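User: Is it possible to get a 3D structure for a protein together with its bound compound? The compound here is S-adenosylmethionine. I've pasted both below.
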Amino acid sequence: MVAVLVHTSERRSHLRTVGERSTLGTMPRIDDQRYLSHHQYRTPERLAARAALHARFGIGPQGWWSWVFDQLELRPDQHVLEVGAGSGSLWRANRKQVPEGLTVVVTDVSPGMVDEACTTLAGDARFDFATLDVAAIPFTDATFDAVIANHMLYHAPNVAEAVNELARVLRPGGQLFAATNGENHLRELHELIHIAEPRYSPEAVRNGAFSLENAVDVLKSIGPAQVRPFDNRLWVTETEPLVNYALSLWDTEGWTDAPAVDAMRALVEERIRTDAGIRITKDTGLVVVMKAVDCAPSPTGTMPS
Ligand SMILES: C[S@@+](CC[C@H](N)C(=O)[O-])C[C@H]1O[C@@H](n2cnc3c(N)ncnc32)[C@H](O)[C@@H]1O
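Assistant: Yes, that's possible. Here is the predicted structure of the complex:
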């Protein structure tokens, strides 16, 4: 049976008010929670445009969702939480491999994303769904054997607070799997957009306060973390999927009919005509950390048997 839990976060004090559209290139919106849940992730379309580019033009030994799933090494008796799960792609892509007996709570701060996950995974007793903010997880301490936070911690306005929450709901010995990007991720794409529209900054902070470069430090309060890079790159041979990707980003919001879009399309077409495709670096991966098992001595000074 699929249960839909509804949690309304009362932690609204950090929300900033933003207009419907940004002035081009002026506002980094990566941790603007109102913008993220009301615009960027209100519905799954923008995220789907980005995922489509990776799925169609990614080159490497294994696709992203299959690789992530293998890293989790899930067992049938485990209880798993995914925060910022988007539309639940991880579970849809690996549904046949999810062990019977495993239970997963698929969650996101955007109700639109949770609706999509719930609809597409409906009728599967292994999954429950909840709308929740990673900064205020409505579960008691030590509830989960594994917690997954894929490409979402960089959206948290206070990453330390989010990490504390993730650690709190993990049982001792449980693992956090957090995906994020490094500073070279999609470097050529951001440079292309910048050529089409010089006010677009290719150097803008896109991984916020949680990147492959600083993740080990950010997670050290939980335990020693290990970075596992994902071996993949893009070879893009069609114009529109790349343009759609660029237009799905938070710092191109509102560009739909701007001259920059025509310039970008023309540039991409020309590069593909000349070189047969555009090579784009991927710098992404998973950071894995185990919550320490409390090994304080028992009151008698003897270790439990
Ligand atoms: C880049 S998407 C990744 C979605 C999914 N994990 C994936 O990899 O396809 C980031 C997701 O994090 C969610 N998110 C942003 N801020 C959040 C928060 N404070 N708490 C929980 N989810 C959040 C967004 O709504 C969005 O669905």
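The mean pLDDT is 87. The first helix runs from residue 33 to 40.
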